[in-house]
């Protein structure tokens, strides 16, 4: 094998200080491994086993570890022949397909840096990711869920001077087909520094434009490996990715990477519906999957009448947003599997309930940190630690938590402390066991005429009402109060009639809630808008309500 030239480092990335590099390596969290090499060793170990299953229920495509490794090599050679070089950024905008897995690893093998967009992102987000990362290529499907990505790609490309290639999985239209990449020599694996940035994830944050999160080979490899161990994944497991696999949760918590790391099989669901999910669980004997709470609700509701065989399922991970305790309690009995709550963030820190935690912790908390060297501080508005058990903002630092957003020097000065703690913006309290209970977001407090109303607290109380399925509480501009408290709800499927605002208020008073905490307005909707990964999207909801109000006044 000929030696490859050294890979240039990315600009705009905050490195871990040397003392932490030494500490995390000495503790064995960080190994000298890169994600592109890891696939090679997994293929050497599990060659003939099925690595990935994708495609429609009934007619899935399957790739063994050895086949995946070969396809990745061919695609990497084609990408190199196109001129995609080490450290080049490439926006990958693919749904849960074999191509996603192949392109991801092929880019890693070229030492190029994938920017993992979610299928639901559209022009504004993609144009932002392309411009910020100065991407040289953009990879899309032809269609997904009724949307044609090729005109979007053409629009983005027309406005992006750095973008040299649009690559399409499927029918390329005016662009280049992934299947028609030029053939190239199977080049050596580039000599990548395990501490280099492997990929850029998209932040789930709700303020401003989404940010890009650099994750290094060794921190992300640890993230996936330690998560797999915690979930006791083995080669006998079948992991179903229902959530978009470009998201950190199904990608590496333990997700696709954690499952491949132990020789398990990964099944990619084309859409997240319980109908497709149950079909795949039965057909592929799925053992583990991960959902966000609104989807978990749909699964639990559908399981009441759907008789397909789910007996293989041993663990349902739920995370991404607060899982209410009542729904948490239904998961085990209805789906016949264990529940794990996951409180994580693309920035790094992962909290998991453990498989042998007592029920009250599994149902009532969002887990505790994955790694013994995850440092968590719960602080007040001045940055001082709150008393044990009190609510405060979570700050964190550790072996897989990034030290700065990509190319965001100014923002990083407020998002991080001088000593490298990430200010999560999440309000939590920590139990003596170390488990965290998420109590909302720092900014999700409504100022109602000078009184502070915690949206999360009110949501939790409202969810106890049997007529309500989903609840989002928002502050809306109000002439007298400054902000009025608005509860937007969907109704339970059991046919209960919509409660009136007055009735909800007396229900809340009955639960001991102060008058000022009670909603001023109630909006009943059929559905609530969701983000790219399926969490309730309060920003979009506020925009919808404001638009409806403006229309109403016209
Ligand atoms: C996951 O990652 P992101 O980056 O999409 O969103 C992170 C934010 C957290 O800061 C928190 O505000 C919220 O989402 N969140 C939760 C939660 N899990 C995430 N809030 C309450 N309860 C939970 N269980 O969402 C993510 C990444 C990896 C694994 C799981 C989720």
TrEMBL record:
InterPro entries: AMP-bd_C, AMP-bd_C_sf, AMP-binding_CS, AMP-dep_synth/lig_dom, ANL_N_sf, ATP-dep_AMP-bd_enzyme. Residues 40-406 form the AMP-dependent synthetase/ligase domain. Pfam families: AMP-binding, AMP-binding_C. One of its GO terms (molecular function) is acid-thiol ligase activity. Residues 458-535 form the AMP-binding enzyme C-terminal domain. Signal peptide: none annotated. SUPFAM superfamilies: Acetyl-CoA synthetase-like. Keywords: Ligase. This is Mycobactin salicyl-AMP ligase. It comes from Micromonospora echinospora.
């Amino acid at each position: 094998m000929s030696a490859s030239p050294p890979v240039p480092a990315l600009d705009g990335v905050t490195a871990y200080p040397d003392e932490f590099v030494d500490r995390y390596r000495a503790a064995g969290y960080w190994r000298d491994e890169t994600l592109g090499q890891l696939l090679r060793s997994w293929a050497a170990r599990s060659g003939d086993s099925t690595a990935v299953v994708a495609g429609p229920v009934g007619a899935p495509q399957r790739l063994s570890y050895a086949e995946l490794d070969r396809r990745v090599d061919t695609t990497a050679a084609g990408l190199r022949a196109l001129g995609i070089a080490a450290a080049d950024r490439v926006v990958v905008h693919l749904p849960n397909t074999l191509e996603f897995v192949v392109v991801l690893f092929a880019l890693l093998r070229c030492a190029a840096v994938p920017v993992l967009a979610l299928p639901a992102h559209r022009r504004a987000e993609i144009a932002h990711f392309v411009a910020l990362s100065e991407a040289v290529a953009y990879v899309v499907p032809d269609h997904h869920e009724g949307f044609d990505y090729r005109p979007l790609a053409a629009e983005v490309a027309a406005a992006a001077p750095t973008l040299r290639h649009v690559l399409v999985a499927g029918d390329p239209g005016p662009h280049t087909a992934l299947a028609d990449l030029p053939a190239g020599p199977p080049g050596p694996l580039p000599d990548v520094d395990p501490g280099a940035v492997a990929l850029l994830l998209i932040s789930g944050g709700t303020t401003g434009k989404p940010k890009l999160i650099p994750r290094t080979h060794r921190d992300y490899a640890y993230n996936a490996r330690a998560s797999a161990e915690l979930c006791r994944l083995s080669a006998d497991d079948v992991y179903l990715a229902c959530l978009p696999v470009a998201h950190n949760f199904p990608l590496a918590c333990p997700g696709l990477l954690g499952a491949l790391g132990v020789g398990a099989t990964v099944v990619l669901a084309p859409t997240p519906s319980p109908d497709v999910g149950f079909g795949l669980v039965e057909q592929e004997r799925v053992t583990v999957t991960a959902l966000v709470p609104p989807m978990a609700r749909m699964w639990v509701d559908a399981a009441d009448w759907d008789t397909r065989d789910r007996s293989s399922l041993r663990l349902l991970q739920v995370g991404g947003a607060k899982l209410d305790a009542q729904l948490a309690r239904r998961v085990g009995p209805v789906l016949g599997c264990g529940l794990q709550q996951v409180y994580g963030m693309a920035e790094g820190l992962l909290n998991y309930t453990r498989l042998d935690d007592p029920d009250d912790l599994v149902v009532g908390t969002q887990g505790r940190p994955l790694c013994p060297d995850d440092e968590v501080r719960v602080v007040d508005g001045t940055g001082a630690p709150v008393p044990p058990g009190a609510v405060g903002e979570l700050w964190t630092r550790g072996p897989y938590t990034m030290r700065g957003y990509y190319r965001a020097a100014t923002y990083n000065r407020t998002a991080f402390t001088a000593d490298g703690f990430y200010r999560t913006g999440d309000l939590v309290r920590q139990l003596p066991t170390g488990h965290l209970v998420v109590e909302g977001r720092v900014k999700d407090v409504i100022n109602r005429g000078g009184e502070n109303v915690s949206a999360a607290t009110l949501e939790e109380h409202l969810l106890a009402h049997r007529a309500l399925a989903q609840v989002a509480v928002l502050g809306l501009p109000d002439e007298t109060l400054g902000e009025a408290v608005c509860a937007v709800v969907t109704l339970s499927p059991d046919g209960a009639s919509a409660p009136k605002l007055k009735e909800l208020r007396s229900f809340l008073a009955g639960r001991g809630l102060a008058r000022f905490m009670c909603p001023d307005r109630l909006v009943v909707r059929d559905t609530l808008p969701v983000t790219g990964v399926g969490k309730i999207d309060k920003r979009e909801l506020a925009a919808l309500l404001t638009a409806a109000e403006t229309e109403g006044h016209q």
